[in-house]
Amino acid sequence: MDAARWELVEELFHEAADLPESERAAFLSSRCAGDPSLAAEVLDLLRADARPASLLDRDLAHVAADLMEPGASSPIPSADFGPWRLLSVLGEGGMGVVYLARRADLDSYAALKILRDASLSPARRERFASEQRLLAHLNHPSIARLYDADTLPDGTPWFVMEYVEGRPLAAFCNEHDLSIPERLRLFRSVCEAVQHAHRHAVIHRDLKPSNILVKQDGAVKLLDFGIAKQMEDPGSEADQTKTALRLMTPAYAAPEQLRGDRPGVHTDVYSLGVILYELLSGRLPFDLSNTTPGQAESIILTREPERPSAAAAGSPAQTTGRSPAGRAGRSAWVELDVLCLTAMHKDPLRRYRSVEALVRDVDHYLNGEPLEARPDTWSYRIGKFARRNRRALSAAALALGAALALVAYYTIRLTTARNTALAEAARTQRIQKFMMNLFEGGDEAAGPAENLSVATLVDRGVHEARALDGDPAVQAELYQTLGGIQQKLGKLAEAEPLLQASLDRRRLQFGPESAEVAESLVSVALLRSAEASYDEARRLALEAIDIYRRRLPAGHPAMALAMGAYGQILENAGAYDEAIAVLEETVKLQSVPGAAPADLAASLTELANCHFYAGHFDQSEAINTRVLEIDRRIYGPRHPHVADDLINLGAIQFEGGHYTQAESFYRPALEILASFHGTSHQETASAQVMLARALVSQGRDEEAAGLIREAIGTQERVYGKTHPRVASALNELGRIAQRQGRLDEAESCFTRMAAIYREVHDNNHYVIGVALSNLAGVLAQREDFAGAERLFREAIAIYGRTIAADHVNVGIGRARLARVLARQKRYAEAESESLAGLDILLKQSSPPATWVSFAKEDLVALYEAQGQPERAAEYRTGH
Predict the structure, then answer these.
(1) What is the assigned CATH class of domain 3-162?
(2) What's the whole-number average pLDDT of the chain?
């Protein structure tokens, strides 16, 4: 065999080896057409490679060789994969084998993927490493997360990712007989995951239902980034395209992928269109069964797909009654056809320009609104007609425009518009003059003062506004603005009369049902929320929303702001599930084209906060990371909004027990806020408390205590002595006193903390349970175990009314209750509570290592005290 012949055989061998065994013969038949001996030579090499005694297999270490050997009877490797142990094979593809793995110390499960034939193909090794890198940068609730990565002693790489128990997307929809709206909502979740990848410059390139699993609870998980790529990947584009052509699934591949063109966002949009087509119609747009790769490519490149509505009507599922086609009317199918065919257009420029645009039209359909996309046939026909008759159409348009202009000129609308414009110009001029007057110094000849502070400007503004009694509309707007500034400055008492005066004047000027009154109601509602008067805040916000619904068109930005304010009030009141639903609706309203990104970022922040307080830390981290990107783009790196985002990300690290990482977020946030607001502002005080929490957890008590005492002074001055933020700071001061043995001081802090929370939240918020649990800890330290038990049980009862049964605080509370029961030698009750608490803790996505360790230590002591050394050993060795 000459060198050229061998080089061709070698190339075909590596390409075929990357494919599943069932697809190799068809691939070689296509590539070796006219030369059957060439295909036979490659097949001989593949068969030799598959034999256990192959030289290629023996190049790997024994464990890796066992691992790579195909067949259901292959033993599970017993190699050292860090803390992970393999249990069973989950799947096997062209590149690697995926195993179900278990981590014994945390009793958690994951999927462990190992590269097949790592030493034979450097390109494969690089693709495997690339998949690891991409997963490490993608953090989204609907993308399987990367947990760990390493190599075997022989250099074979492996990585561990989230294990998803679920069904492929299409199968899940069919098995649960989902309606079209239900299928679209699942599809929308898939799009959000892909959109997250695109925001991180990652193109998936192999989207298909088998790479999308749906869990029993309906949560979607996107898998397999094996041939994904960075949009600005520095590697050889030709090599990457060649690899993708071998590994992608043709039925879901975009035409430009098959042609070998550069992939982009539009590539994934096409694949999503095919997925949507299959979900709606019950079959793929093209029948590629019994075709060679070349024939499949020709079909996709040259044929137009049948409309999904027609495909659904003729699908086998329709005859069995399992198809959703019969559940949509003709007009609905017109919209669905447009959705699918726009996403699947052969010309990338005529598809949805982004996944976000596709999501918007899905939302438009679900909300009964017009789609942004339009059927292709009309645009083509009108465009061609216009080009053929350009001169005639131009003349006709001019004549029609002139006629319409003459008619419109003589209507009452012109007069109304003119008067409105004049009034608006006068109003604008009045406000501009007002703002200029604020900056005048005491002596007009001296020019603007050089020592003006924000407080001075606001006080001067209030004085100037009082002189505008002759223009109540302008006066009301200025009072509204000045009151909002006073509130941001922490001067709630000063904000109150200004916002109330604005509301009163607007009611007189515009009427009680006006949009202007609704705007003022929202502002007063947020002030009441800041004062912890949540019932009144809710009432005012709902009154504003009702007015907007009656007065404004659907989707108006003012409605979104009111909904966001209501969600924030619910969040402050501790109604997290209700707040999440409201804020998700707000985010939808603010995600439409033309919406202000700053408003969207603010609503996303509140949504992330609600997920955090509800214990959904992964969702909160993903949303906060997105908000940080938006805020840095809008405001720059040193704005208070950026500081808030850093604090939120630090809090997530803190809850996971990563205290030094939490400090690394808190410190720059505090620096930003102190430089922006000053050291005696309430937002600076909140950041001081957060940093102090991280310091306390690292044992740096004195540094933390100084920050907390300073923060409490600020918060009591701004909010008064009975406010949730004061209670939060007292919690940290109590922790320090307890650790230093000053139990009377600790008891005083926790008692006052509980009293504040009871008064503010009407004895119905989980933070009351946190305060009681901390107070119980002080009693336990004094060996008042009966008193501690009473408080722990009361705390757990409050958790039962206010948070989910599997929330991390419930697990901690039950584990702490078990400890005081054991001290009273009530071992059976203690064992039950300790096991239940440990089970809850281990079910968390990021189990709190400190509390897990404490619970296991208590179980060891419990079983040893009962003379059960075998049970004790289970937890001593990492049950």
Answers:
(1) alpha beta
(2) 78
